[in-house]
Amino acid sequence: MNRAWNTAIKQPRVYMSSARLGNLSELVRSQYQKAIEAGDAFFYDSQVRVTKSGASQDGERQKTVPWQIRTVPALLKKPKAEPSSTASDEKKEIHHQPMQNQRDVFAPPYVPNLLVKELDNFTVLLNKYCVLPGHFLLVTRDFVKQEKPPSPEMLSLVYNIIMSHTPTRPDAELLGFFNCGPNSGASQPHCHFQLVELTPTDPDSKAVPIETMLETDMSPDENKGT
């Protein structure tokens, strides 16, 4: 269960039950392995550094926010040219592989190994370029601009996905995040919500760093008797 999500919002109106999702966690993991093995998805190793910054609250108490800074050294390396024979073989194989929609990568036709599940108004896809294993997306079936806030239906569905998630280890949690337009990091114009499983970086930290701050905000203030 993602405690940060539960703390940040009240339980929304349920548009789709968790039963409709099936065992989505297992589907994502299974499809991720297929996509990696087939070369339809790519995983890049990353390094995480945690830095903590303090911020005063009402001038009385200090709280610490653990920021996770993730770097991907592999992206600094330029890809090497493939031998001509290998490149020729790859060109031949391309004709037998389903082509991704070049105008909108989140619209049909989907690459089969990246497609996890189709729902009524949404589609669950794997992220093609993964910094974390099993990084997946919830995208709208019809085109909706990423600059618009996610709809209540989308938020409700993400909530159900998080609540029904089966973690790979007991201390892991699923984090959902939404980049609302290019200024917040979105590189695709088609509306999509991203979901990744996080694990604690050390024994004293939470899997989802913002939980520390939220729990501090919501905890009773003994000095004020609340």
Automatic annotation (TrEMBL):
GO terms in the biological process aspect are:
nucleotide metabolic process
Q: PANTHER family given for it?
A: AP-4-A PHOSPHORYLASE II, PUTATIVE (AFU_ORTHOLOGUE AFUA_5G14690)-RELATED
Ap4A phosphorylase 1/2 N-terminal domain: which residues? 61-215
Q: Which domain of life is it from?
A: Eukaryota
Tell me one GO molecular function of this protein. ATP:ADP adenylyltransferase activity
Name of the protein: Ap4A phosphorylase 1/2 N-terminal domain-containing protein
* Residues passing through the membrane, by range: none
What is the organism of origin for this protein? Answer: Malassezia globosa (strain ATCC MYA-4612 / CBS 7966) (Dandruff-associated fungus)
